Amino acid sequence: MDLQVQDIIIFIAFFAFVVGISIYKSRRETGSEDYFLAGRGLTWPFIGLSIVAANISTEQFVGMSGQGAGATGLAVSNWQLIGSIGIVVIAFTLLPRFLKSGIYTMPEFLEYRYNSTARAIMALLTVIIYVGVLLTGVLYTGGLTLRTIFGMNLVQAVWMIGFIAAVYTAFGGLKAIAWADLFQGSALILGGLFTFWTALQACGGWEVFSTVNADRLHMVLPAEHETLPWTGVLSGMWIVLIYYCGLNQFIVQRNLAAKTLRDGQLGVIFAGALWLLVPFAIVMPGIMALQLYPEQVAAYPDSAYPTLIRELVHPGIRGLMFAAISGAVISSLASMVNSASTIFTMDVYKRMFDREAGQKRLLLLGRSLTVVFMVLGCLAAPLLARNESIFQFIQQFQGYIWPGVVAAFLFGFLVPRAPGAAGVTALAGGPALYGIFQYFTRQGFFAGFPGEPLFDIHFLIQVLISFLLLSIMMGMITLIRPMESPRKLPVRDEMDLETDAFVKFAGAVVIVSIIGFYVVFW
Fold this sequence. Notes:
By secondary structure, the protein is mainly α. The chain has 24 helices and no strands.
C-alpha cells in the first residue's frame, strides 16, 4: 500500500498531538507514586480505555485475527469474552483488597502475605515474561503489520514504534500512558469497527457472510480440536484469566491508580464492555479476509487483517488506519514496559538492593529501565519470525507464570494460615511443572526436540494440572507447618470499600450481554 502525502501528514499529526498531550499532562510527575501510579488519580473512563488500549494490539489484530481465519474461527474470541466475565468478577473481589492495601505492584502484595522471597520470585518471573515474550511479541506483530500493509522494512518498523512508545513512557510514566491511551484506544476501536463494516460490505452483507462462513461462527469447538478445544476453555482458561484480569501488573496497574473504588470498578467493567467489540472488530474481519482473499490468507493466516486493510482501505483514510494500528501497538508497548520498569524498580532494586533509595533515584531508574527494556525488545522481536502463529506462541509461553501465580494468590486468600514456604513453592514450582509438561509433549520451547511426545495434552489443560498439583503441595505444607497467625495487610484508611449500586448494575449488564453472545453463536 502506497502512502500519499496526506496520509503521512495525518499520521505525523496524530502522534504529535498524542505524544504532546501526554507529555504536557504528565509534566509535573516528580515522585514514584506520580510516575508509576499517576498519583492515584485516574477516573473510570481513563482506566477503561487504557486497559483496552493496553490489551488490544497487533497481538490481537495479527494473531487473534489470524486464528479466526485459520482453524479456530470465531471461537478464538473466548479469550476476550471470558476475560470480560473475569474482569467483572475481579472488580467485586480482588480489586477492593488491592486498593485498600495501597500497593504499587502485585509482587509487593505477596511480600505482605507471604515473605520477601515470594515477592522476588514473582517480580523476576514477571519481568522475564514481559520483556522476553509480551514486549517482543507485540513489537514483532506491529512490525509485521506495518510491513504487510505499507511495505515497511520489518526491523525499521519495530524500532520506529518502539521509539515512539519509549519517548512518552520514559518521560511521563503511567499518567502519560493513560492520556495517550484515551486517544489511541478510541482510534483502534473505531478503526476496527470501520474495517468490519467495510469488509462486511465487500462480502455481500451479513446474510451472505454468515451463510458462507457458518462453520467458522461457533464459540464452542470439539474436544479433539488442536488449538482451542472446549475442554481447554473450561479447564485452564479460567486460571489464565484470573491472572490476566486480576494479577497481571500491566492491566492491574491502572486499577491501583484509581481515584476511588467506584472509579476502579467502573473502569474495569467499562473495559469488559468494550472487549465485547473484539469479535466484530478483530476476529470476524479475519474470517472475512479468508472469504475475500483465500489464496493469500490460507497460506499464512496471520496476514489476514493486514491483507484486508491493504486491499480495502482507500487513499485518504490510510493515514488514520496507519495511526490507529501503530497506536494499538504503541499503547500496549508503553503499558508493558512501564509495568516491567515499575516491578524491577520497586520489587527488585528498592527491595533487594537499596531500601533507602530516594524519589529522584527511583524516578531516574524507572525511566532508564523503560529505555533499556524497549531496546532489548526491539533487538529480540525479529527472531520471532520463525513461529507459525504468534498468538499461540504468546499464550503458550505465558503458561510458565500462570499456574504458580494464581495458586499463590488464591490459596493465600482462601487459607489465611498458609505459610511463606507454601507461596514460594507455588511460584518456583509453577514454571518447573509446566516446563516438564511442555517437554514431554514437545510443545512451545521444546517443539522440534528429538524424540516423540510422551502424551498429547493441550497447553491449557497442562496449566490446570500444574495449578492443581501446586495447590495440593501448598495444602500439604500448610498442614505440616501452618502460620501461627494470619498476617495483617496494610490499610489505606481513606479508601471507601462500599460498592455503588450502579456499579453492580453495570457489571450485570456486561455479563448478560456476554451470555447472549454465546447463545447466538453457540
